[in-house]
Amino acid sequence: MDSVARVVAQRLLLGILTLIVVSVVIFVAVNLLPGDFAQAFLGQGATEGAVNAIRRDLGLDQPLVLRYFHWLGNALTGDLGTSFAQANFSSFTGTAAENLPTVASQIAPRFANTMFLAAVTACIAVPLALTLGILAALYRNSLFDKTVNMVTLSSISSPEFFLAYILILFLAVLNPVLPSISNIYADMGLGQRLERTLLPALTLTLVVTAHMMRMTRAAIINLLASPYIEMARLKGLSPMRVVVRHALPNALAPIINVIALNLAYLITGVVVVEVVFVYPGIGQLFVDAVKNRDIPMVQACCLIFACAYILLNLLADVLSILSNPRLRHPK
Amino acid sequence: MTNISRRGLLRTGAAAGVLAASGLPLRAQDAKRGGRLRMGLNGANTSDSWDSRTHSDIFMTSSAQGAVFDSLTQVSAEGSLVGELATDWEASSDAKTWTFNLRDGVTFHNGKPFNADDVIESLQLHVAEGSKSAAAPIVEGVEMKKTGDLQVQFTLPTGNADFPFLLSDYHLLIYPAGQIEEAIAKGIGTGLYRVQSFDPGVRFVGTRVDSHYKDGEAGWFDEIEIIAINDPSARMNALMTGQVDVINDIDFKTEPLMRQNPMIEVFEVTGNHQYTMPMLTDTAPFDDVNVRRAIKYGINREEMVQKILQGHGMVGNDHPIGPANQYYAEDLEQLAFDPDQAKYHLKQAGLDSINVELSAASTAFNGAIDAAQLAQASLGVAGINVSVIQEPADGYWSNVWLKKPWCLSYWSGRATEDWMFSSALEAGAPWNDTHWDNEQFQKWLIEARGELDSEKRAEIYRDMQKMLSEDGGYIVPMYANLTGAASTRLGHGEAIGNLFKADNNRLAERWWFTG
């Protein structure tokens, strides 16, 4: 078990290093965006004096490197800054900038909503993909296998908004069983919240199922050619038992990796789905922030997305080590 | 229309109490209490708050001025000015001193009675040190004196006949004195709906107060919910599937589908929102009035309304005063596409043909590039060769507008003629996007500002519109309609306010359920 802890620590360190590199990339990329907050905010009223005043107020006239270290230092202590829109509004009213909602406090409820949507989707998509994958492996090249492949591949190949509108058409317009917009609130009961979340969750399920299902199928089929599977067959075990009991445990590592990748996508890739369904998650916040060139908000969102990817990949690595005796007990 | 009452009201609003009945929806007799209104509006932001100084878009103006808070005066759906927290007002003969009588027996949502202190303290917010309120020019330099528990006297630095009208601005909300910070944090006003929950950028829920001074005249819903739906297709879906009862800003491309649905009523009004093509009147060749006239006749306005606005608008007449203004001169001769006239004026300028550049970017307005190309095609017929320069959208307002000799732009219009003219056409104003500097125009502007006789003002403002229409560089090919769609279960007055979206921000207050 000691070696596992060491591997995890190693991966964690690497993850942090990656995160720092990513933070540089985020910072440079965001600051290279054409246009700036002052101009986006002032719109038609963007006279030179007004633009300069706002840039000065927000510290945008400082050199890039200085701003990066300032931002990184604050982010490390958990302070993601104050959104430009907030800071600018406070200057409108002449109030002190101290009691303003911070980026972190604005993101927190939205992030919780996105996590909820991801969790609901995962609860539907992961078991569905695994079951379909196993069944497809079991009855490979049958009509069932081909149908499942075709349906999941066409759904992954369609743009998300298209899938969303198809689902709205069938489940909200023609057969009004689900609401077409998913506006959820803090004080909403779980039942109602689930009902409102179901349509975006189904859309995302359609998007992520194919990848996981096909990896499950491929990994299992790959193993079915191994001698030990042949042995199991010769013993007279049922095909179902061969697949679930003998093949699946050895196929877990690649499957876990793909699941982790797709879970990360559920957090970072929901932007379009959230906009279509008016779901108050981090994706919508992100779109608004980019539109307004609200740099602290964009950077914080990017950082959270990067963290989600890195952490989930780390988790996948650890789990695949744990699922593989050879890695668990290295010589 | 209520032209007479509007004008009669200028000097004194003493009749406001009587007029209140006619200022309200004409069909309000059919209105009845009950139901929960769900509105899907755009323009919401996570940084929204109940601080009216930051309000700029329909979500917050509908929630604040349209539900939770009141102002001193309000513009009725028909366009006349009526009292809200003020009952009546009177001006001195030079329009400098205004005395407002306030409504008796009004309380804030927290039980505090309303009086003159609330008015003064709330208006002072906008001129507080460091404040950048858009309404600051209205109250700047105004001396405010409490002349009674329910009476305030304002002394203006210069006479302004529009002062009561300006007080209806959606920034000028009345908060409880001494508790303003708390009122901004929680949303405590004197409006018809008290805040039940407010989630910035997501939704606002308000509950009808038990008794209110507008009882029987407005505030028909028991509860209102305003949901932020910034995406146009999502807004339409929400209405079509019955998730909301009313939405604003419909998408013209899907509008025919909406019209097919018998349960949905599409509504639109023409207000002051205008798409413009300002040319710098001090830069060649636009400094020649004949060139400007040639261009005015060479633009096919009707075609632009049909193709850019899909018919949801009205042709403009090259002045910034729109149908939502009091002194809109609708009897002026309408400029129309006439290549022969255009050629004639070009000849007057001593030219057979001319090459000009028109700068455009999509940020000017929806379909701006297409509009520039339409102008290019129609002007070409008259011998005016336009090359359309596609400018980058980023930085358009700082690098192109006010700088390039001819470009595309928009104005959302202002409630009063004086405000509009002094923003966009007064000599020396920073946003004078045509560099318009005409001595006679300046003289008229100052004269009308202090003139209390509404007949005379109407005449002056008509002359100013005529001058711009004939000689100006402020090209207005079209006014864009304010649109929305609602369930047919909703009822509303015969007129729908055309100054701001959603019935002048007051849809939740004025509409009702018929079913």
TrEMBL record, chain A:
Alphabetized InterPro entries for the sequence: BPD_transp_1_N, MetI-like, MetI-like_sf
Species of the source: Mesobaculum littorinae
Alphabetical UniProt keywords: Cell membrane, Membrane, Transmembrane, Transmembrane helix, Transport
Keyword Disulfide bond included in the entry's annotation: no
Domain of life: Bacteria
Positions of transmembrane segments: 12-33, 115-139, 160-178, 198-225, 255-277, 297-322
A Gene Ontology term for the protein's cellular component: plasma membrane
Family listed: Belongs to the binding-protein-dependent transport system permease family.
Protein name (database record): ABC transporter permease
Pfam families documented for this protein: BPD_transp_1, BPD_transp_1_N
Residues of the ABC transmembrane type-1 domain: 111-316
Cellular localisation: Cell membrane
Coiled coil spans: none
Topological type in the membrane: Multi-pass membrane protein
Signal peptide (residue range): none
SUPFAM superfamilies recorded: MetI-like (SSF161098)
Protein's GO biological process: transmembrane transport
TrEMBL record, chain B:
Record-level Gene Ontology MF annotations: peptide transmembrane transporter activity
Entry-linked SUPFAM superfamilies: Periplasmic binding protein-like II
Protein name (database record): Peptide ABC transporter substrate-binding protein
Matching Pfam families: SBP_bac_5
Family, per entry: Belongs to the bacterial solute-binding protein 5 family.
Organism: Mesobaculum littorinae
Intracellular or extracellular location(s): Periplasm
InterPro entries: Peptide/Ni-bd, SBP_5, SBP_5_dom, TAT_signal
PROSITE patterns associated with the record: TAT
Lineage of the organism: Bacteria, Pseudomonadati, Pseudomonadota, Alphaproteobacteria, Rhodobacterales
UniProt GO cellular component terms: ATP-binding cassette (ABC) transporter complex; outer membrane-bounded periplasmic space
Residue ranges occupied by any Solute-binding protein family domain in the UniProt entry: 81-430
An example Gene Ontology biological process: peptide transport
